[in-house]
Amino acid sequence: MLVLGIESSCDDTAAAVIETHQPGVATVRSSVVANQDNIHTNYGGVVPELASREHILGILPAIELALREADCEFRDIDAIAVTRGPGLVGSLLVGLMCAKGLAQRMGVPMVGVNHLEGHLLAPLLEHTVATPFLSLVVSGGHTALYLVEDIGRYRRLGRTRDDAAGEAFDKVAKLMGLGYPGGKIIDQLAQRGNPKKVRLPRARVKRAPLDFSFSGIKTAVAIHLRDNNGRTITRDDLAASFQEAVVDMLLRPTLEAAREFAIDTIALTGGVAANSRLRHRLGDAARAEGRRLIAPSLKYCTDNAAMIALAGSYRLLRGERDSLTVDAEANLPL
Q1: Which residue pairs, CB below 8 angstroms and at least 24 apart, start in 157-161?
Q2: Do 292 and 265 form a contact (C-beta atoms < 8 A)?
């Protein structure tokens, strides 16, 4: 079965084709992602109206390129999987309306996919993973811990109470005058800095040890910049110290959850899963406790349509379908 995946939940216009014959066994034939960084960098973050306009311009070219790279045509596609939430509703509607039109014209089934489920299952594009496993989903819009009991059965163990980790990276990068997107820039600077140079707080949520909070560290960086203006703390050291604090706050609940639920495999997914320090430290910590860390390749950490096609393929192979009346939901729960 060839599944066309379409993803447009935020500012990445993505299309992919995967080939699958049974649940959990898939080959990525193509994966195309067109980002809008050059547009949103002028504003220090994603502007929803501009994002949706760019999706309108880019969605069909992305799909056509994905088909060419997969060496197939529209008539070869057996089904379509498309993100229907959560995300920016204007962006979501572009992908969803396109998927509906194609499904009707081609006469193929369509399923709407939860964006978070796509991230949860992204490691399965490249790894064989038995359930249950623990998944840390960490991105610009989401930071949460999930117990993947089975495909389609997910239990949220912890969540951020305020900012997502990726959002904190972008906001701190803006405070430091580094530009957008901030996560990649901070990661690069931090590799040259001293992570112990600046003392920053590590927040914990009272009576909810598996939850996260990142608003405080953003404030701490702002105060540090105000109070140390003109002093000799380098941007590299501040970036390294901030990154180290965020990684500490991500690791502690993740490892506590793995111990509490006796989970041997931890999956790291989402855009911040591309952070080199997080991948390195979580991998070392997991191995020290006899656990396994899996993470997608960098191209499948950020938003992409291959993970959406994979998540949709499980439903399709079970015979599930969505009608053409299915709607986008900005706050779609998992």
Answers
A1: 157/210, 157/257, 157/261, 158/208, 158/209, 158/210, 158/211, 158/212, 158/253, 158/257, 159/211, 159/212, 160/211, 160/212, 160/213, 160/214, 161/205, 161/208, 161/211, 161/212, 161/213
A2: yes
Q: Is residue 198 within 8 Å of residue 222, measured between CB atoms?
A: no
pLDDT tens digit string along 246-295?
A: 999 999 999 999 999 999 999 999 999 999 999 999 999 999 999 999 99
Q: Which domains are seen in the chain, by residue range?
A: 2-121+301-317 (3.30.420.40), 131-295 (3.30.420.40)
Nearest by Cα to 67 from 76, 59, 79, 58: 76
Confidence (pTM):
0.92
Task: Give kind and range of the element (H or E) at residue 240.
Answer: helix 235-260
The pair of structure tokens assigned to 63 is 């799909």
Alpha carbons 146 and 248: distance in angstroms, whole number? 18
51-78 pLDDT, tens digit each:
999 999 999 999 999 999 999 999 999 9
The burial class, CB within 10 Å (0-12 / 13-18 / 19+), for 232 is exposed
